[in-house]
Recover the amino acids of this structure.
């Protein structure tokens, strides 16, 4: 089972990527693929296409293109559900103690990390960032 996480530009800029990766690995996730990328506006709009038309959409895509982010494909049993638990609620003010967003997020918008919300979206989102070749053969 696998899922996609993105360490968002706020956490990269504030030097929290290492702590977040350590948190993910201590939660049992194995890193299958990762890179640092600065999204273009069309890429950010496509990735978050499901939210197009929502009031926060312009701010979301502006934020996600504001600096480099770090997408990563993560492997673990029950990966999608477990990662959602580990990251916590969208708004860090509502996130459970010890979750990544509670520990590292600045605000509901600048909330440190993205995680896929279903197996179907995880497959789509992993394919958005990584080729089959990049994913092949590293982790079972
Ligand atoms: N977002 C926001 N305001 C909102 C809802 C969402 O700025 O009221 C941003 C936030 O960065 C969030 C992203 O849009 O992580 C995607 O929203 P979603 O509801 O999918 O939350 P997530 O799955 O990231 O918890
Ligand atoms: Mg979401």
């Amino acid at each position: 089972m696998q899922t996609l996480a993105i360490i968002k530009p706020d956490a990269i800029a504030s030097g929290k990527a290492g702590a977040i990766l350590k948190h993910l690995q201590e939660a049992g996730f194995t890193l299958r693929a990762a890179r640092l990328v600065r999204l273009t506006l069309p890429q950010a709009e496509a990735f978050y296409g499901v939210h197009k038309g929502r009031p926060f959409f312009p701010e979301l895509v502006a934020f996600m293109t504001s600096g480099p982010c770090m997408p990563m494909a993560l492997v673990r049993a029950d990966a999608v559900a477990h990662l959602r638990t580990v990251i916590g609620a969208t708004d860090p003010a509502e996130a459970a103690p010890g979750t990544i967003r509670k520990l590292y997020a600045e605000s509901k918008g600048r909330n440190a990390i993205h995680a896929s919300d279903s197996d179907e979206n995880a497959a789509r989102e992993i394919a958005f960032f990584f080729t089959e070749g990049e994913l092949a053969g590293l982790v079972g």
About this structure: The first strand starts at residue 2 and ends at 7. The chain has eight helices and four strands.
